[in-house]
Amino acid sequence: MYFHLLTLIWVYASFASATITFRLQKAANPTADQADAYTHIESVMRTAIARYSKYATRPNKNITVQYVPSVATADGNFNGNLRFGKGRQYMNERTALHEIAHTLGIGQTKAFDTRCAANNWPSGTKLLRTWDGPNAKINCGGGHIWPYGLNYDKEMSETNAVRHCSMYLNEDPIWETKSHRDFLAQVDSAPMADSA
């Protein structure tokens, strides 16, 4: 029983705060363009991850970041890959926050689609209504979410960035996998099996 209790404490502590990390893939001998892009990308990723770490307590993700000049703007995928294109105007915190959200499941998972279809955002809706009034509603479409989805640069502000991190990425679950749920279910049921 003692082992199971320690396991439970470890599991819950592991998921109690956001741990998002990134690794930027770099060319061994970067061109001037690549070196400049790497500097911009590293800066905005550090800034965005610091904000998520402060306001989004649930997600854990290791992200592989790439500079791919042929990408039109930037794109993030639930598989943990995030690519920035050549346009320096997209190498900003707003874009990084938005694309990291895709790596965490926004617009990328069945759980997200299910929540969107049912408009089932208990924590997010509650927060949204404290900010925007009692009739405020979370909207989804085309793999995106609003308000506070940071879909366009004009949406970026300090307030909107905090709300983005606080509202969507503390919902349970938009990013979890079946294996994660099965593992938690096994750990949760273990103490009951020992005490029987």
> Which stretches are low in confidence, meaning pLDDT under 50 for 5 or more residues running?
1-16, 175-196
How many domains is the backbone divided into? 1
Query: What general outline do the C-alpha atoms trace?
Result: elongated
Average pLDDT confidence is 81
Percent of residues in helical segments?
Answer: 40-55%
- Summed up, the helix count is 7
| Number of E-type strands | 6
Q: What pattern of helices and strands is seen along the backbone?
A: HEHEEEHHHEEHH
**Rg, alpha carbons:** 19 Å
Largest sheet, spatial ordering of strands: 1-2-4-3
Measured distance between first and last alpha carbons: 11 Å
Relative strand content = 5-15%
Helix/strand/pairing class, anyone?
Answer: alpha/beta
For the biggest sheet, the summary is: 4 strands, mixed
Provide structural commentary.
The protein has 196 residues and is of the alpha/beta class. It has one domain (2-195). 49% of the residues lie in helices and 14% in strands. It is built from seven helices and six strands, in the order αβαβββαααββαα. The chain has helices spanning 2-14, 32-55, 93-103, 110-118, 122-132, 158-167, 178-195; strands at residues 19-24, 60-67, 74-76, 81-84, 139-141, 144-146. The strands form two sheets. Strands 1-2-4-3 form a four-stranded mixed sheet, covered by helices on one side. A two-stranded antiparallel sheet has the order 5-6. α1 runs antiparallel to α7 and α2 packs across α3 (93-103). The longest helix has 24 residues, at 32-55. The N and C termini lie close together (11 Å). The model is unreliable at 1-16 and 175-196 (pLDDT under 50). This is Ricin B lectin. It comes from Microthyrium microscopicum. Keywords: Signal.
